[in-house]
Amino acid sequence: MQIYLPIAEVSVNAFLLLGLGGIVGILSGMFGVGGGFLMTPLLFFIGIPPAVAVATEANQIVASSFSGVLAHFRRKTVDLRMGTVLLVGGLCGAAVGVVLFNYLKSMGQVDLLVKLCYVVFLGIIGGMMFFESLRAIRKSRAGGPPPKRKKHTFIHKMPFKMRFRTSGLYISVIPPLIVGVCVGILAAIMGVGGGFIMVPAMIYLLGMPTKVVVGTSLFQIIFVTAFTTLLHATTNYTVDIALAVLLLVGGVIGAQIGTRIGTKLKAEQLRILLAMMVLAVCFKLALDLLIEPSELYSIGTGGGH
């Protein structure tokens, strides 16, 4: 069943989009990630223009993060004060990111920038997760205790300290603001929630307890991605509602299945599976950038100039 997407200006099979939404929803439920960093490249592969994929995927992340954060509120695992500091940085970063996105779009370079960002970030994160998971699997087989994190780092010596009671921290607001800004820029340029960067930063850089990290990250992601979607919709007109709805329906169903699968696998096995998927998507994107296309020139049909 083919469906015409008015903003993307392409016809795509509706069941293919539902399936993609479902697959990413399953991953979201299994691994606790928004899935945007996998969904956006998958949309590139089926012919959706990168500018439309980025703006529309940000829209889908708002809904999936909202359903996730409600569960964390019930468990009281959301640090609202930390989330607000991250949010202030995130909104500033998203505004900067959209300005940069629009500038590159006017120069005709935005597709290349988005794809290059994905190759670099997926390569780094997939590689780090893969080796870290291998180490954890070896350690658990050897029966050794998990490595302890250092309690005091340079972050504890910075000024403008604030007490975050839910996280049990008394640290400077500067590092969370910087993390928020970086994630906001990525949300605008790559159409991701940024959880795959924010979660490790909150654990290893800020020293937050793992149980409050996911909920706090989702709380910040909702507002930053909603703000990003609004900016893209009003300045670029690149949010495709038909595409967003199909991905959303698939994602909601997939997330329920993924949550059930996730409870049956060990954390190390889940992480290594996710790392392998991230590296596979990164490799495919890099190949697309390096291999010469079959048609060097394409003639635009739309535009009305």
From TrEMBL:
This protein's GO CC annotations: plasma membrane
Signal peptide: none
Keywords annotated in UniProt: Cell membrane, Membrane, Transmembrane, Transmembrane helix
Protein localization: Cell membrane; Membrane
Keyword field contains Nucleus: no
Membrane topology reported for the UniProt record: Multi-pass membrane protein
Transmembrane annotation, as ranges: 12-39, 85-104, 110-131, 185-205, 212-231, 237-258, 270-291
Pfam families in the record: TauE (PF01925)
Similarity field: Belongs to the 4-toluene sulfonate uptake permease (TSUP) (TC 2.A.102) family.
Protein name (database record): Probable membrane transporter protein
Naturally occurring in which organism (per UniProt): Roseovarius nubinhibens (strain ATCC BAA-591 / DSM 15170 / ISM)
